[in-house]
Amino acid sequence: MRRPRCRGSFVGTRRRRQPGAKGGAHRDRAPARTRDTPRTLDAVLQAHRGASGHALARTTVPLHLLAGAEGVLASRAEARRVAARLARFEQAEIDCAGIADVGHGFAAELLRVFRGDNPGLELQPTGMNPGVQAMVASVRPGAPRPIA
After folding, report:
1. Per residue of the chain (148 residues), what is the pLDDT tens digit?
2. pTM (whole model) above 0.90
3. Looking at the domain assignment, is residue 97 inside a domain?
4. How many CB atoms lie within 10 A of CB 109?
5. Into how many domains does the chain fold?
6. Is residue 12 part of a domain?
7. Which domain holds residue 84?
8. 3-class DSSP state for residue 140?
9. Could you tell me if residue 90 is inside a domain?
């Protein structure tokens, strides 16, 4: 049995643009991308290409984009979000610049669990402050376990 179509007050009330009117406010903004960069497409592809040919094999993940203003990454869910598409690459640089602190769950999920599930992927954390460096060292395979 078919349900009747909704005949609410919003059906057919879409405002139409007046003839000659300009687009919305989004047309007044500057473009999101700039084209005046010294980098070339070939240079970027060469930097991220692996030994296997044309496929992209290397990537850089800037964690400050996920951390927000606080600069803290604590949960395993955040680590899974970071690692969502990393399995496609052979080498991933995890850029920790701008990160104030990482939680044990985040570091363990990314550097122990995810690395164990993807042994062909090389993860390289860079730009770490001493606190982040200590947490990364504590969850690396072969690191001494704390005594409970």
Report:
1. 565 555 555 555 555 555 655 555 545 555 556 677 787 777 776 666 666 666 778 889 999 988 888 889 999 999 999 999 898 888 899 999 999 999 999 999 999 999 899 998 899 999 999 999 999 999 986 655 554 4
2. no
3. yes
4. 21
5. 1
6. no
7. 53-139
8. coil
9. yes
